[in-house]
Structures are given as C-alpha cells and as structure tokens.
Write a structure and sequence with these properties.
alpha+beta, about 35% strand, elongated, about 35% helix, GTP Cyclohydrolase I, domain 2, homotetramer, 8-stranded antiparallel β-sheet
C-alpha cells in the first residue's frame, strides 16, 4: 500500500514560511578528538528550513536524519568539533530539502571544564553553558558560537560610598588624610557583591574558527573574581580579596569583554558580529542588572582605537 | 556628607554600550478603564537605555522611577492601556537619561479572559500570555504587542494514512468505492493530535493600535479546535469532532494566522512587522514541531494577493 | 443520545490511587475584603482526590467546578481570604466526589506588597511568592500556608578571616591591639554577600489562621538585610552597612526564622508543622548553599526553652 | 596565619537543623562499566547533612570533597553504577562530618537510550530523565531510584462517545447492529490524544538493586503507545494504530505501572516504597491531568492479589 504524501500538496493559503522544523530535540553528542578522550554531551537542538509558498508541509524527519548522519560522522572524524557541529548539520539539512533555500540549526549544551582552587590548588570542575547557531544557504554558512559563565562582581559605587563613610568616621580620630588613605589601602572596603553571569557570542562565516574555551577565559577575566566549586578557607580569603580589589559595574564587565575580544580575535573579519552581555543577580535588589553590546567587530575595533 | 557619583566617571575602556538596565523586575500593574473594572496584572519587565562611551555607568534607579511614574498615572487615566504601557515607559525612561538616545522596555504578563464551553455554555476562564516591547528614540517610538495561546491540532498526514488504511480494510468487505467514501464522510478519522501553542506579535509605530484580544481570537481560530478549562461530556465530543474535521500542520496554522492578520489589520502600515509562530507539543515525539513567519505586512499583503 | 460514562466502569487492575486530578491550572483569583480593595492574583492550582480501586476514573471536571464555585463565593464574601482559599476548595471537592475520601489542593501565587526605601522613603513595591496546600477528609482539614522572600546575606566566616587579615596588616603599623580593635569597630569588614531566598510554611488544622504577611516579615528580619526595588545612594549605603553589621550563615537565618515563629505564633498548637528554609545564591560558587528545619512546633518550643 | 573556624562556634539560637548543604551542583559524572563504554552524564546534585544545635555551621566544602572522592573512584571501579551513586556519596558525606547523623544526597540527570522505529527499524535515540535520592545514617542507607519518560495516551472516554456517535450516524444507513460493530472493529475510533509523562521511583535499602532501564520499559509499556525520535510514514501509521487500540486514562497508566512493578520486582522487600505518577499534557485543556500512587510494595502486593 502506498501511503499518501500530504506534505507535498499545495496549501490553501500560499504564503512563504520563514522556517519550519523541530525544537527541543535532545541528543547525545559524541565528538572524536585527535589525541584526547572524545567529548560527550547531551545537547538540545532546534533545526528548521524555510518553506516555499507552493508546498503544504516540510518533511521534518529529514532534519532528524541529517542530525544523525552528522553525529555518526563525528564519532569517527576528529574534524567535527563542538564549535562547528551546528554548521555541519545546517549544511546537511539544506542538502536534504530540495525545496529549501535556508537552513537553521541552534544548540544549547553544558560543558565541563577542569579547574583548580586558587591557593590550595584543590582540583574541581566547572560546568558552563555553551551555545551555537548556524544558518546555511547555497551562498554562505554563518556560524555563531557562544559561552555563558558565572563569576562574582563587587559594586564600585557602594564601595566608594563606604570609603567616604569610613574616611568621615576615621577623621574623628585625629588621623591625617595620609594616614587614613594608607589605612584604606590596606583594607578591602566593604560593598555589596553578587553572582554575575557573563555571555559572549561571536558570529562568523563558517571558515573562521572561534574557540569556546577562549570565550570562557575572557568572561572569567572580566568580572571582579572567578568563582569555584571547592574553596578551602585560604582560597575563600583569596577570592574575596581579589573581588574587593576589582570592583566592576555590569558596564565595566561588558567593556572588558569587548576589549579582550578585539585583542584576541585579530584573525576575524570586520563583519564578525560580537554580542557581549553581563547580568548581575543583584544582592540588594530582587531584580537583575544587565549591560550589553551587540556590534560588528569592525566598529568595535574602531571605537577601541580612538 | 556628599556621596560620590561613580557612574558619572569616565571609564577606562571607552566603548558604547547598546543597552544597560534592569531585568526580571516584577510589578503589580493596575490600569484604569473607561467603563469597566480596572485591569490588574503582575508583569515582568526589562528596561534599559544605551550608554555612550564616555560614561562609566547608567543610573539604573531612574528606570524604576520612570516605571512607577507611568504606573501611577495609569491608575487615574483610562488612556494608558496594556497595549501601550511599554511605549509610555520607554518614553519616560528616555526623558530621564540626558545621555541616552534609545530606550528599551519589554514586558511579559498573564491575562485572564472569560470563556464559555461550546455546548453546555458552562462559564470558565482562560489565562493567556501577553507580551510587549517598545523602543523609543527622539525620532520615533516603535511598539510590539503579542499574545501566546494554547489550542489543539490534529495531524492531516496521519489522518490521510489512516483513511487509506480504512479504505483498504473496508474494500475486503465488498463495499463499493462510493459506499466507502460515504462511510468515511460520516466518521471522524483517527489521527494523532496534540497541544499546540500559537503566538502572534505585531510591531508598529506607537500611533497605531494593535488590540491584544483580536490577536488571541486569530490564534484560536487557526488551530484545529479551541481548548477549554471545563468540558462536560457533550462539550468534549464537540471539541473532538471539530478538531478531527479540521486537521492542520504547524505550517497551516501559521498560514491561517497570517491570512487573518492581513484581513483584519488593514489599518496598519506596510512596514508593520508580523511574527506568527506555531509550536506543537507533539504527542508522538519527545520534541516539538514548529513553523514561523517573520515578515513585514507589506510583503505579506503582496503574497496574499497573488 | 445518552453519552457513556466510562469513568464509572470497573478497571482491569483494581488498585487504589493516592490521588487523581488536574495540575498547572491557572486561575484569576479575586478576593473581597472587609474595608480594602479586593485582592486580585493569577494563581496556579493543583487539585486532586483519591480514587478507590473499584472505579476506573475520577470526574476531573468536578474539581474545576468546585474551584469556580469557591471563587464566585469569594467575590462576595470577605470571609474567604488568600490563606484559607485552598482549604475551602478542598472541602468543596470532597463534597462533590461521593467515592472520594481525601481531597488535595495546592496553590502557588505572586503577591505584591507596598514598601519604602530605608532612608529616602521612596515608595516602591515588592512581589513575593506565596503558596498553600490543603488536605480535606471527613474528619479534618489541614492547611499549609507559606511565603518565599528575597533578601541579602553576608558571610560571617569570610568576614572573620578578612578581619584577621586586616589585623595582621595593621599590626605592621605599630598600632596597639586596642587601637586596631577600635578601628575595626568603625569599619564594615568586607566579606562576600549574596542574594538569599527565605521560605517559611506552617501547616495547621484549618481552624487556626497563619497570616502570610507575618511570615514575610519574619523572613525579612532573619537575613543580613532586606532588599528593595528602588535604592537611592543614601539607601544603598544604609543597606550595605546593615548587611555587613549582621553577617549570617544560611544556618543562622533558619534558626532566626524558627525563633521568631516560636515567639510569634504562640496561639498555634504543638502539632503545627513548621518548615523554614534558606537558600543562598552564593556569589563565590556556581551552586547554592541551603539550610532547613522541618519539625513540629511542639519540638521547636522545647528546643528553644532549653 | 591561622584562619578562624567560625562554623565551629556555638550559635546564639540552639536549634537542631534538619539539613544543611549545597544544591544545584552540576557535575560531570563518568562511570566505568565492566564490558561497555563508560557512562558519561552531566548531573545536578543536592547534598546535605543534619546539624546539631550546638554548632553554628556545617563544613560545606566537605560535601563537595565527598562527591569528588566517589566520582574519582567511579572512574576506576565498574562497581559504582548510576543507580548506586547517591548512596555511595551519602555514606562518604556521613563519614566526613563527625557531628552529623544523617546525610542526604539527591541527583537529577539525563540519560540517552538507543532505540529503533517500530516498522522501518530506523535507529534513533531517546533522552530520558533519571533521578535518585539517598539517605544515610549509621544504621541504614535508603536509596530511591527513578525515571521519567514521555509517551502518548488516547482518551477512552472520548473514544466511547465518538463510537456512540458513529453508531448513531451509521444506524441511519440501514446497517444492522452486527454490521456496525464489525465496521467499528476495523476502524481506529477518533479521540483526543496527548503527550504523557510517566514517572516511577522505588525506594529501597541500599543492598537492593533497582535497574533504571527496567523502570523505563515499564513506563513505556503503560501508555497507549511509545513515542520515537524519527518516524517514517509507515512508523507513524503503526504508532497511531497502536495508540488508538489502547486508550488509557492517567488512572489506567498508573495502575498498569503498579501492576508491572509488583510482577517484576518480586525480589524487593515489602517495605520498598513505590511512587508511580502519570501526567497528561492534555490536548483539549490548558492544564494537565494526573494520577499517582504512593504506597509500600507490601500493600500493593496485597491489593493486586485480591
């Protein structure tokens, strides 16, 4: 018995659809690597293709077959890396839909990184969020790669206010301005601090490579201090001192990220699109504070050189 | 004692920030209405402003004051409606940041609508999601308004396959093709169906008004059947019959939405941006299926007239 | 045509079910009040009833009708309060299922409270989470009522370590121990702080009343400082000073909550069940820290009196 | 410099705490296996210990060290399985807190299973949720293990109503009751169906083993039909036919789960606690329907033998 192909019918309303596909697809991803253990992740994917006005439906199972074909290939070939996975799948989807002109694939995943506590050197792990998004047409394939990492931030404004108040309090004690300044230099000044979440993504043509681990490092370096899974007492003291020595607004964190991206990614083209965002889970408010830059790398290069 | 204004300092890295603000702010919103009871909602807001390169920080508390000013006004003046709230706040934020050129406000909320079951007419409620997003500059204020509504969809493809299988099975019984067709006409043919979630948003200059309740109706009409809080047995039969009489792919639902938007919103300008999306929580897969149109109204009008 | 009642059939497998019902039901709740404006909330409900082994299915629409009956009554009668709503619905559900012996209703909601900044007295709001859970049998109705509130906590351990380090650093400066102690008394000592979330619930027979607003106050008082929607600079200084003067572990916060509950709820019976929990969104870790007490009030009274 | 140990102080309020610990800890878990590839997962853990009234704080970093010790051991020893991981960690935590008497560890994770489409045999995957919870005291260690799996369910009530309506419609056509019954036997009768989520957990003393994969199979078998990642047209027809041949209420699904658990786990003791729950993401309502059994195995055995 031949089963009917309803998707190939002409629809009543002939409007082009921007995208048709599947979302929330969880996949066990295993990627071979040249000399290391394979990377193994459970990732969530959205995969879609445009649909021309003359066709009632898209063949959604082809998207899933495209994904599985790429994943099977990735087990054997160390060439497919987590950074290029979405682009590979998007190209495969485009190939399999003769009526489609533009394929979209996005991914969210968690990724474990080995770490060491800053003083005790105790080994621990950090699980960060990574994401990617590829768009494939016959002409070009763009690939966005990003990471989201937690850290801590201390507020420069409240710290300045506290310093002012300490100065006032100490001046009652017959100390000179120099003595007070010297004292304040030796003391980490109190201020509110909080958990912060930094995100950087960069969108480039697929022939350029953006290493996720470099994005993770830039995000960590931009907050007041890194944070850790395990902190013994001496580590905790170190983190607090570092954080209170480096107060940062959300604005400062984003600008630091942008500055490092401009310095480190000199091999990327001007049209690369950079998105850097910092969200502070404010400890003195119920809501969050955030700052964000979304700009092409060429413009950021120019701003930085001014 | 004068407290320092650290935000006004010059930053070390002088890069423009696209937006700086607060997110996840929950507010109790009360809107006066000409003749009806006031609308009362708890909504979640993001509010932000661009920050020029020469300024270290934005004054975030001004965003919150802007919000509260508008909300106080809204209690007295029936002119502020849920559809225009974000635009009002965005303008107020722009006014309060002398260094800012572009203010952004977005909102997510829940909204209750009175309903009646289709046969028993039993009264019930439906809580839908609504959202809005405004961008204000000195030159113009754009306002996006949207709604997200659940319904049910039945699959046309599986229904055709089932019809084919029934035809084959009945043909063994010495029935003519006409008799079989007549039988099939009297029977709702089985197929998988599922909970679907439809979303429409329209972005327009603030002087145009997009009534949320009309978006809700269009979404409901585009799926195989509406769904209800309370269904007595006779209502349940009605919903099932209607759903199985109107099989729809995600693609069909989106095209129906677009078609209704083009018909109903003839007063909107060509540059209005329409985003229509349908997500089916597939009952035969763990993942979802979706279709989406994002296009300006002018282009959709042209496609529909072809 | 008479429609079949499949639920009333005998099932193949005759096992008692602990509960059968609906979950994730969103309702617009409006409660009349003696002299004030009505309270209006959108709440999410679960409602269920036990099912004896001899019955195939429960009549789920009766749960929804029970809810609507109570909500209609609540619009007119100021007697139904948010604290007693679940108990009222549970009793109504029990009444409507002749085969059921135990009805369960739970609710989650958001609730807005008016607030004032601590120094500037600027008016703002706070949206807190409230929840309730009632179980009704013929013999008794129990009612659990709770609230979840955000605040800030400063770490006593890191603060002691920082004080030790400051002492060491100042001792190089030829200051006496007394002079150093006097200095440290005048300075808020730096330590990591973070957003904390406190929760208290109390389960009592329905004839006892547990006012949600009192739970909210106890939670606020137990953390290092309250937090606010809007803080002008002078308010921010006040919050930071208060927080750094009152360092608290998650353990301290829970013990303070328990202590206040024992003091304030002397009218409740010994068998009242108290659950107090504090979660700190650690600013120096990716994970959270938490402490929890779950105990009957009688035992807590005895521990407190030791 | 010796750093102070504030946690060891005596607190102001001397109340026992039920548990103190860390939550939301994400860990990369790698488990060796006798003959297969290791299992690799990213899991989320909560880990806590009771705290006696005389101690101000618990040493939280010891929980993390306990976890890491067990995970390192699990890389080398195929004996540690995903089912016993929480129990191993709970025992290690108890060992490391000389002041603690009861340790708690819980885990949530995703787990990928290889699958085949029912007709085409096309290979695909399924990612399911698994969870575990262990409580360790000196006397005993209890271990709860569970799985959560999606499937599809068709409604028996609406199907009976539809059959009745078809009977009425066909009776106008001069067909005998026998002819109508024969026709209805050959036709899958339409009814609403939906995505369902089944969960089973079993809590036992740690010396008993509950294989997660057996729980997954029982859940799958209890719904109207399994669901799949990839379905070609012939597979889709098969799933729809199977689902419409096996209509099930949430109540039926739970009873089927319980029945299979009683049959398959004859080696478990009567005091094993079984929790079986089915949630249907209703396609004709915005809310969900659910049924649940929570009972000890001994009681279920007795009910089943009646």
């Amino acid at each position: 018995m031949k089963l009917p192909d309803v998707q190939a019918d002409r629809p009543d309303i002939t409007v082009d659809l921007s995208r048709v596909g599947v979302s929330g697809l969880k996949k066990h991803v295993k990627l071979a690597r040249e000399q290391n253990d394979p990377v193994i992740l459970i990732s969530e994917f959205d995969m879609s293709i445009n649909l021309p006005s003359y066709r009632k439906g898209a063949n959604l199972s082809r998207n899933l077959e495209a994904m599985n074909t790429v994943l099977e290939r990735a087990i054997d070939e160390p060439v497919v890396e987590i950074e290029s996975l979405c682009a590979e799948v998007a190209k495969e989807i485009l190939d399999r839909h003769e009526y489609g002109k533009k394929a979209f694939v996005s991914m969210e995943s968690e990724y474990a990184v080995e770490r060491e506590a800053p003083v005790s050197n105790q080994k621990s792990q950090e699980v960060i969020e990574i994401f990617a998004e590829a768009v494939a047409t016959e002409e070009e394939v763009s690939n966005k790669v990003g990471a989201r990492v937690k850290g801590t931030t201390t507020c420069p404004c409240a710290q300045e206010i506290m310093a002012e108040k300490i100065r006032e309090s100490l001046s009652e004690k017959d100390l000179s301005k120099e003595e007070i300044d010297d004292l304040l230099d030796r003391i980490p000044i109190a201020t509110h601090n909080q958990r912060g979440v930094g995100t950087i993504s960069i969108k480039v043509p697929e022939e350029y490579f953006v290493p996720i681990e470099r994005l993770v490092e830039i995000i960590k370096d931009s907050m007041s201090s890194e944070i850790f899974e395990i902190l013994k007492r001496e580590d905790e003291a170190h983190v607090v001192e570092e954080a209170f020595d480096n107060p940062t607004f959300v604005e400062d964190v984003v600008r630091s990220m942008v500055s490092d991206v401009v310095k480190d990614f000199s091999h990327l083209p001007d049209k690369a699109v950079v998105n850097a965002k910092q969200v502070n889970k404010e400890s003195i408010h119920s809501h969050d504070a955030f700052a964000e830059v979304k700009s092409c790398l060429g413009d950021l290069r120019q701003e930085m050189s001014n």
